[in-house]
Amino acid sequence: MTTMTLPNETTLSAMKEAESGEDADIVNIDSVDNFIASMR
Questions:
Q1: How far apart are the first and last CA of the chain?
Q2: Which pTM does this prediction carry?
């Protein structure tokens, strides 16, 4: 018997955002500090 785990609210929200076609603009990954700043 396989137990099915349902996604939590955070995962469901991320899935809906990904499916919406909206992108996060430019994400700077040149350094960790720039990456974190670009996510704000």
A1: 44
A2: 0.45
Question: Which DSSP symbol is given to 30?
Answer: S
What are the angstrom distances between the C-alpha of 33 and each of 23, 24, 36, 38?
A: 21, 17, 5, 9
Whether residue 7 contacts residue 15, with contact meaning beta carbons closer than 8 Å, is answered with: yes
Show the tokens assigned to 37.
Answer: 């700043």
Question: pLDDT by residue (tens digit) across 4-39?
Answer: 899 999 999 888 988 988 776 776 678 888 777 777
CA-to-CA dists, residue 23 to 1, 4, 10, 18, angstroms: 39, 30, 17, 8
- How many other CB atoms are found less than 10 A from the CB of residue 2? 3
